[in-house]
Write a structure and sequence with these properties.
Elements (H helix, E strand, L loop, with lengths): L8 E5 L4 H12 L3 E6 L2 H13 L4 E5 L5 H15 L4 E3 L9 H30 L2 E5 L14 H20 L5 E7 L8 H8 L1 H10 L8 H12 L10 E4 L10
Parallel strand pairs: 1-2, 1-4, 2-3, 4-5, 5-6, 6-7
Length: about 250
């Protein structure tokens, strides 16, 4: 299916690894021009070099989205480089750490960076009648045990925020949706580490999936691309669960 991204301009936070990297690969393969950020300059440089060697149009910069001034400055610079904006995907997460530092990271990186980013891009997206697709998690949809969690709490907040933003953005032609992945295997990510250090736990989680495995980054990226595309022109304020049936929820 041609998703209509040829010539479109896309902004993604976090694009050197995992789901963010797969999202960028998907947009580029569909003909979009992409700007992205990540904290590690060497990783950004290597990623941009690799993608450009394949003939893609891509811009990458080092930026910590938890730094409000640097983050908004990067957004404005990236949009200028792109020549406008059609899609924004706030993807970066502060992780699932515990304690006060975990709460601060979840609030600053997951929540406030998404809010600041959306506030900065909505005027541009109103001009192109574009889309925002927020990366949330099934962790925001159900209790996972172990007591209160910064990660779960903030991901629930992101789903609510996306819906509320979608309500006021729709009259301006801007669609806002969220995607909630379940467990996703990333070799150098959380579940890759679990597979190496706690293989029995990894196998148990995989077995809880009806298909007996975790998701791939590409499977999550495919959902993001669809919701961000003109093919989903009548879909807004929706949270798409991409978990292979992992959660025992009936969606109404």
């Amino acid at each position: 299916m041609d998703l209509g991204f040829k010539g479109k301009r896309v902004l993604v936070t976090g694009g050197t690894r995992g789901i963010g990297a797969a999202i960028i690969d998907g947009f580029l393969a569909e003909g979009a021009t992409v700007a992205f950020c990540a904290r590690n300059q060497d990783e950004v440089t290597a990623r941009v070099s690799d993608l450009k060697s394949k003939g893609y149009q891509v811009f990458g910069s080092a930026c910590d989205v938890a730094d409000p001034n640097a983050y908004v400055s990067w957004i404005n610079t990236a949009i200028a480089e792109l020549g406008g904006l059609d899609v924004f995907v706030p993807n970066v997460s502060g992780g699932a750490n515990a304690g006060e530092e975990g709460w601060k990271a979840a609030f600053d990186v997951d929540l406030m960076a998404t809010v600041r980013g959306c506030e900065a891009v909505v005027p541009h997206l109103a001009q192109s009648r574009g889309a925002i697709t927020v990366i949330a998690s099934i962790a925001g949809l159900e209790g996972s045990g172990g007591g209160p969690s910064p990660y779960n709490t903030v991901k629930a907040g992101l789903i609510t925020y996306a819906s509320q933003l979608g309500e006021i953005a729709a009259p301006h032609g801007v669609r806002v949706n969220s995607v909630s992945p379940g467990p996703v295997h990333v070799d150098d990510g959380f579940w890759g580490d679990v597979e190496r250090s706690q293989p029995d736990m990894y196998k148990a989680v995989a077995a809880r999936h009806p298909q007996g495995r975790l998701a791939t980054c590409e499977e999550v990226a495919n959902a993001v691309l669809f919701l961000s595309s003109s093919k989903a022109s009548w879909v807004t304020r929706t949270n798409m669960v991409v978990d292979g049936g992992f959660t025992n929820r009936v969606q109404f």
